[in-house]
Design brief:
Blueprint lengths: L8 E7 L5 H14 L4 E5 L5 H11 L8 H25 L3 E5 L2 H11 L4 H12 L6 E6 L2 H17 L16 H17 L4 E5 L4 H16 L7
Parallel strand pairs: 1-3, 1-4, 2-3, 4-5
Helix pairs in contact: 1-8, 2-3, 3-5, 4-5, 4-7
Length: 229
């Protein structure tokens, strides 16, 4: 597995569904590419052909009553393939990998939301991911009710297009408010445990305000601004 000595940089964005991660990742990628940097933009679950098939199974509401442990195992199956096929090669080439979710999501959603706790998540991470960690994780903290409502509206619109081949990714958004409160609390616990890696950004403002905060963090933490073509 790559270590912190590799030439590439590994940055992840985390947060509740509907907090605006996808928008912020695209903005960050565009800003870094404008500086002449080589960026790989990817996501979890997914990121590979195999991972995208697993994503459909995990997120589709038709999956039904998938138990927490099999759910966690599928998340890590996708992640292990993602590391092997996308993340490792990109880091070895000296590229910047921007990833929408990583193991922190499993600790928050399955560990916190599903009440599995951190231990099985971190054990699988050690076994299947070789302990690979992002150099920087930006946690987009947001209001639970507002974020989940936004995610539900987005996925309802996607479901309306399902007849034209769009996938249904409503499964997690159907969970209770208490579930997402546990997810948020688990995220905050991770940030408190690993302040050297995880930086919290208040994502309740405008997309432009959030982008400005994220750029300041990336430039300060990784000194990427100086690495122009």
């Amino acid at each position: 597995m790559p270590t912190q000595s590799h030439r590439g940089r590994f940055i992840t964005l985390e947060g509740l569904d509907g907090c605006g991660k996808s928008t912020q990742l695209e903005k960050l990628a565009a800003a870094l590419r404008a500086q002449g940097l080589s960026v790989v933009l990817t996501r979890e679950p997914g990121g590979t052909e195999t991972g995208e098939k697993i994503r459909k199974l995990l997120l589709d509401s038709a999956t039904g009553r998938l138990s927490p442990l099999p759910e966690l195992a599928l998340m890590f199956a996708s992640r292990a393939q993602h590391i092997k096929e996308v993340i490792q090669p990109a880091l070895a080439e000296g590229r910047i990998v921007l990833c929408d979710r990583f193991t922190d999501s499993s600790e928050a959603y399955q560990g916190g939301g599903r009440k599995l706790g951190s231990e099985p998540v971190l054990a699988l991470h050690r076994i299947l991911c070789g302990g690979l960690q992002p150099e920087l994780t930006i946690l987009m903290d947001s209001d639970v009710a507002a974020s989940v409502e936004r995610a539900r509206r987005r996925n309802q619109a996607r479901t309306a297009d399902s007849g034209r081949g769009e996938s249904d990714e409503n499964r997690f958004e159907r969970e209770s408010r208490a579930f997402f409160e546990r997810v948020r609390n688990a995220y905050l616990a991770i940030a408190a445990r690993e302040p050297q890696r995880v930086v919290i950004v208040d994502a309740r403002g405008t997309a432009e305000d959030t982008h400005k905060q994220i750029m300041e963090i990336v430039q300060r933490k990784l000194k990427l601004a100086a690495k122009t073509a």
